[in-house]
Specification:
With 190 residues, the protein is an all-alpha fold. It has helices at residues 2-7, 21-26, 29-34, 38-52, 59-68, 73-109, 113-134, 141-150, 155-189. It has one domain.
């Protein structure tokens, strides 16, 4: 046990670091975060923010963490799913509240009420599949979460689709890293 904690307390650079030598020299955050108790909080905060307010992809931190700590793949993936799904509910709320406060008047002012009704019908008919399909794109999830709130998508349907979609997204990333991560690290080390 002492050997394991000692091995994870040293800075990771060179073939062990998932960053280029230039980034590693400047102080890559992923190796430091992957070795601390703060890793869960950092990845959770980024996953939450990406689904609600900031267009910052958690994949950019998750991938290096998975490369450096493959033993934490399941827990890091689960943290991302829970935090991202929770953030999506906040994003949905932002869209729903913003629509109630301002959006409806703007749509009517610009004479787009009929187009917005078509949009709402599209979300009602296809929202579940749109949200799941979005999981396979690099577009920040907050956009779809806010749009679902604006359209007043059924909250239960939105929540189920979000959890399925986020689980697929992060599980695919973890699977790719587990399958080809070591080859990638060897390629970067050359």
């Amino acid at each position: 046990m002492a050997e394991q904690s000692a091995a994870h307390s040293e800075p990771v650079h060179g073939p062990q670091c998932c960053c280029s030598p230039t980034i590693a020299r400047r102080g890559c955050a992923a190796p430091r975060l992957s070795q601390t108790a703060d890793q869960a909080a950092a990845i959770a905060a980024i996953a939450f923010a990406e689904s609600s307010v900031l267009p910052v992809l958690p994949d950019l931190l998750l991938i290096p963490m998975l490369l450096l700590r493959p033993d934490r793949s399941f827990s890091l993936t689960a943290i991302c799913v829970v935090a991202s799904s929770t953030g999506a509910l906040v994003g949905y709320g932002i869209g729903h509240v913003a629509w109630a406060a301002l959006g409806e008047r703007l749509v009517e002012m610009y004479g787009q009420a009929d187009n917005f009704l078509r949009y709402r019908q599209l979300v009602e008919d296809w929202g579940l599949w749109i949200i799941i399909a979005k999981s396979f794109t690099p577009i920040p999830f907050k956009f779809i979460a806010i749009a679902a709130g604006v359209a007043s998508m059924n909250l239960l349907t939105f929540t189920v689709a979000t959890v399925i979609g986020r689980t697929l997204h992060f599980a695919i990333i973890a699977l790719i890293v587990a399958s080809w991560g070591q080859q990638f690290l060897q390629l970067v080390a050359r």
